[in-house]
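Appendix B, example 12.
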Amino acid sequence: MKLTRFSSDPVLAPNCGNAWESLITTNPAAWREPATGKVSLLYRAAGGDPEHIVRLGLAESTDGFHFKRVSPEPVFAPLPGNYDGGCIEDPRLVKFGDWFFLTYACRPAPNGQYWMGARRAFRFALEPELPAPFGNNGMMTAIAFSRDLRQWRRGGFITHPEQEDHDVILFPEKINGRYWYLHRPLFDGQIPGIWLADADNPLRLNHSRVLAMPREDWEAQKIGGNAPPLRTDRGWLVIYHGVGRDGYYRLGALLLDSNDPDRVIGRTPEPIFEPEAWYELEGCHNFKGVVFPCGNAIIGDRLVVYYGAADRYIGIAYCPLAGLLDELARSCAK
């Protein structure tokens, strides 16, 4: 089973009319409102400033495939002097009742244009007398809450302050009365894998343990979760990325037990999507291909995946949901 690319061009690209999104629009979170079918994308955006300050923009669609920007200004931006003073990026979005819960990667100070060779023109803001992450400008994950995707309440960082922890993704509902997270802590000497945590309060990850580790070939360097898990009649469907020895980012899928997410029911043996289109190969990651979703939805009988392309553009890919679930069910017997 392979995802089908929706368009030969990006569905959203940098907008030269807005300085804050003139260079990058990528890695979108997505939410499909069940009552109306409207899909909202919160996308990572940046302009040409050497500091590379990253903000979030907002686009909407009535059909889940054709999007229009709905705000000329960022809807969520770094707060100088705060734990997220340098960047707000790679958002993941779920909803509990009337409230959206957003997890996002952040740094206290700007990260610079990371894709430039011979180190960045902009230096890290280091404060060695302060504890991490302020002392080393480390990456962490924070959470925020909103009713309308425009006005936000910051909930603070939810990962360990001295450990970089990426791809932190909240399940869209409680399981057995608890909140559940996917995440990817980085340990010295260990290949990064997907971890699972549960908690009675979403402001802290507790009881963390390994869920899946990289295999050979297309995911040999590392794996990580991508979009929030989707509940299906066969279990939780999770899209994840793997990075191979060639540096390319490709996508796979996991199927987790509905009531016990620790139990992996199925895992695709081969990638279900990989960089091939020009905009997946020619962005800020122009030295390798990248497809990196932060959002997905079930629309009709399709799984629809909203992905960042080469850290610069946004694309959409889809496949029959039943076909992918069938493949995952077959994979458990192998």
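The mean pLDDT is 93. DSSP finds two helices and 21 strands in the chain.
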